[in-house]
């Protein structure tokens, strides 16, 4: 085993270690996601930077979101293993280029596949940035998938940070929300 390791070049050793680290981080990320770590009903955790779901997102905005947390881990894992594998057959520079390109492609494809719908009427959320009564804009974090979206309020009262709201519609890239009263909260909990 030691003879095999000593026979590897520096690039092969480095890409092997990066592939192992990326794979471990990717498995931890998947376990945390599947275990409900991002379930907002438990702790109001936002993974907004890793949620590629802007409706009018530009190409560069999509690429930034593709290479955020999950994408960087995929780039590290898939890119590391690709560099390691190709380094046996091609020179170092092409192996690095191929590995980085494949890592980025995997991250972009995964981001495109994992896109989530932004918001729909009836979803509950928590206000993350106060929705002001002056300009009526703020931000909410959806309970369903942890996405932070821009919001405007129905009515004339401000809605403070941490208050529960329900989405009534989605207009011009913003969620129209209504504060949930204590009475309606009990009804909602009874129905769900």
Task: Provide the fold topology.
Blueprint: H1 2-7, H2 10-34, H3 40-43, H4 59-66, H5 69-86, H6 92-113, E1 124-129, E2 137-142, E3 148-153, E4 164-171, E5 174-179, H7 182-191
Parallel strand pairs: 3-5
Antiparallel strand pairs: 1-2, 1-4, 2-3, 4-5
Helix pairs in contact: 2-5, 4-6, 5-6
What structural keywords apply?
five-stranded mixed β-barrel, about 190 residues, OB fold (Dihydrolipoamide Acetyltransferase, E2P), 5 strands
Structure description:
It is a single chain. The chain has 192 residues and is of the alpha+beta class. The protein has two domains: 2-113, no CATH class; 124-180, OB fold (Dihydrolipoamide Acetyltransferase, E2P) (Beta Barrel). Helix content is 48%, strand content 17%. It is built from seven helices and five strands. It has helices at residues 2-7, 10-34, 40-43, 59-66, 69-86, 92-113, 182-191; strands at residues 124-129, 137-142, 148-153, 164-171, 174-179. It has a five-stranded mixed beta barrel. A hairpin with a 5-residue loop joins strand 2 and strand 3. Helix 5 runs antiparallel to helix 6. The longest helix is centred in the N-terminal third of the chain and has 25 residues, at 10-34. It is elongated. The protein starts with a helix and ends with a helix. The relative contact order is 0.12. Mean pLDDT is 78; it is low at 39-50.
Give a brief outline of the structure.
By secondary structure, the protein is of the alpha+beta class. The chain has seven helices and five strands; from the N terminus they run H-H-H-H-H-H-E-E-E-E-E-H. The chain has two domains: 2-113, no CATH class; 124-180, Beta Barrel (OB fold (Dihydrolipoamide Acetyltransferase, E2P)), CATH 2.40.50.
């Amino acid at each position: 085993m030691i003879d095999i390791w000593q026979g590897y070049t520096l690039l092969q050793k480095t890409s092997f270690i990066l592939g192992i680290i990326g794979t471990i981080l990717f498995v931890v990320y998947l376990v945390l996601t599947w275990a409900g770590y991002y379930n907002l009903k438990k702790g109001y955790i936002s993974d907004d930077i890793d949620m590629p779901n802007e409706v009018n997102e530009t190409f560069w905005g999509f690429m930034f979101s593709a290479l955020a947390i999950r994408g960087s881990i995929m780039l590290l894992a898939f890119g590391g293993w690709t560099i390691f594998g190709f380094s046996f057959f091609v020179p170092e520079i092409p192996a690095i280029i191929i590995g980085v390109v494949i890592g980025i492609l995997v991250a972009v494809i995964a981001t495109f596949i994992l896109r989530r719908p932004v918001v729909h009427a009836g979803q509950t959320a928590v206000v993350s940035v106060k929705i002001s009564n002056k300009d009526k804009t703020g931000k909410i974090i959806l309970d369903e998938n942890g996405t932070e979206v821009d919001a405007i309020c129905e009515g004339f009262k401000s809605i403070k940070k941490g208050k529960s709201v329900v989405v009534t519609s989605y207009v011009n890239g913003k969620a129209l929300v209504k504060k949930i009263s204590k009475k309606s909260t009990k009804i909602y909990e009874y129905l769900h």
